[in-house]
Amino acid sequence: MIDIVNIAPMDIEKESFATITRELGDRQPPEELAPIVKRVIHTTADFDYADTLYFSPGVVEQAKAAIRAGAHIVTDTTMALSGINKKAAARFGCKADCFIADADVAAEAKTRGVTRALVSMEKAARLGEPVIFAIGNAPTALIRIRELMDAGELAPKLVIGVPVGFVNVVASKELIIASGAPCIVARGRKGGSNVAACIVNALLYQLDETRGQ
Amino acid sequence: MIDIVNIAPMDIEKESFATITRELGDRQPPEELAPIVKRVIHTTADFDYADTLYFSPGVVEQAKAAIRAGAHIVTDTTMALSGINKKAAARFGCKADCFIADADVAAEAKTRGVTRALVSMEKAARLGEPVIFAIGNAPTALIRIRELMDAGELAPKLVIGVPVGFVNVVASKELIIASGAPCIVARGRKGGSNVAACIVNALLYQLDETRGQ
Lengths: 213, 213
Fold this sequence. Notes:
Two copies of one chain form a homodimer. Chain A is an alpha/beta fold. In chain A, 54% of the residues lie in helices and 11% in strands. Chain A has eleven helices and six strands. A six-stranded mixed sheet of chain A has the order 1-6-5-4-2-3, with helices on both faces. In chain A, helix 9 (139-150) links the parallel strand 4 (131-135) and strand 5. At the A-B interface, helix 1, helix 2, helix 5, helix 10 and helix 11 of A face helix 1, helix 2, helix 5, helix 10 and helix 11 of B.
C-alpha cells in the first residue's frame, strides 16, 4: 500500500520544517541561521547542507540591511532568477535580474573566449548600485566577483556563493570566503540555482516575519 | 593557496562528465541511461542519483519518440520551465509550458482548497495533447496525474517524477512507478525543479547527438 497523507496545502511547508528540525537532532544551527539552513534542506532534502553552509560573521544582519535598503539582486542563471520570490523582493524595493542571456553579454563572452556568467558579473558591477549576488551555477562568476573586489571595482553587499559542480567550484567558493565579503557559501561541490534562489527567499521571508511581529 | 584551473568554457562540461564517470567507478549505469544519470549528477553533484533513479522498461526510446513527435512538455514550476532548453525543444516542435501561475488555476485551487500544482495538471490533461510531464516540486501533481490516469482521462507520454521534499514525496513517486506510465523517477526524498529540467534536457541532447551522427 502506498500511503498518502491528507494535508492542506498551507500545512505542507510547516510539516516539512518540523520534520527537518526533528531529523537535525543535535545538529541544530544557531537560531539566527536556522531559517536559512532549514530552507536549503527543505529545497534539496539534503542534510549535508547542515554542515557545509558557511556564513561570514554578521552576514544575516548585513543581508537584511541590504534588502531593506533595496539592493539589486543579480543572479547568474535565469533559473535562479525564476526561483526568487519577486513579489517579496519588490516589497523592499529590490529588483532582481540576470544578465546572462543579454545579447551584449553573449557577444562579448564569445569575443573574449570567457563565460557569459563572467561577463554578466562585470555588467552587474558597472551598475554602480548596491548588489546582492546569488550565484548558483558558475564558478567563473564567483572568481570574477573576487577579481573585481580586489581591483576595487566592486563591493558586494552580499555574495550567495552556491555553484554546483566539478570544475573550479570548490576553489571559487573558498575565494569568496577568503575575500572578506559578506557571504553565504555552500562549501564543497554541491549547490545549484535552486539553492541560490532559496537562500534569497529565506532572507526575504525572515524580514517579512519581523514585520509581522 | 586556492587552485583555479584554467579551462575553456566549452571544455568545462566535458571535464565534469569525465570526473563523474571516473568517480562512478563500478556503479556505471547502462549505456542507454548513462547520459541521463550523469547529467543529473552533473546538475546536483550528488552521486545518490546513481542509485535512486528509476527508469520504466523502454522509457528512453518511448521518451525519444514522444519528443520526435513534438509532445507538449508541461512542468509544475516556472523554475523547471526556466531550466529547460527551449531552443533544443523547439527543434522537435515541442512546446514547454507551466500553468501554475495562471489566474484560472490559482482561483480554482483556492476555491477547492487544493494545490495550484494539482489544478495545473488537470489543465494539462484537458489539452488533449500528447504530454511529457516534468514534475520537480509537487507531489500533489504526481498524485493527480495518477488519479487522472486511473480515471482514463490522461495517458502521459512520459512522467518525469522528481519532486523533492518531506510530505507525500516518496509515496507520490511510488504511485507513478506503479501506474505503468513511461516514467523516470528519483526514488526517495531528493529531486527538484533543476533535476526535472535536467532530465528533459538530457533527453533532448541525446536526440541531437543522434541527428549529428
